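Question (not urgent): is this output format expected?
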Amino acid sequence: MKLNKSNVRPEGVKAATLFLLLSLILLVQGCSQAERDIVNDPFPEAQTEVKEILEQIYKAAQAQDLDQLSSYHLYGTKFTEFKSGKLRADAERNKQSEREFFTRISDFEYDLRDLKVSVFGDVAVATFHGHFQVTMGEENLSFQRQSTLVFVKTDDSWKIVHEHFSPLDAGEQD
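Got this back:
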């Protein structure tokens, strides 16, 4: 059969064009996802973003800007916290304990030593040895914590979904 204007239907052309367009979109998406190696790709741009967020978090803590500090968390039913060998805490307990702590101090200094940020696509794990100094009343306190923060990438930023702070063995050297 020979094709000419009289035997080519517009519906057939539209359907074929739509099929080809959808096939192309699926092919492009499949290729882009196949190139994403969440285990071996270091995601350097995301690492930089998370490091910048960490700096903002601790600057908010220094300024005792508790609302800003809370904004870096993705509080909800999936949020968890471990601290100093105690049982797992939820979002409300974390928010409450952070507010209590930062309203009791008048000075806060920090040094995040041996910082490592590992990114796995939309999840990032930041580990560091936190060296902290605070003034509580007339007392100057210093403490070191082995620290882990787990972040999830949201539409607008990286948010903390898990915190873990445990005493760092004073005998260990950074």
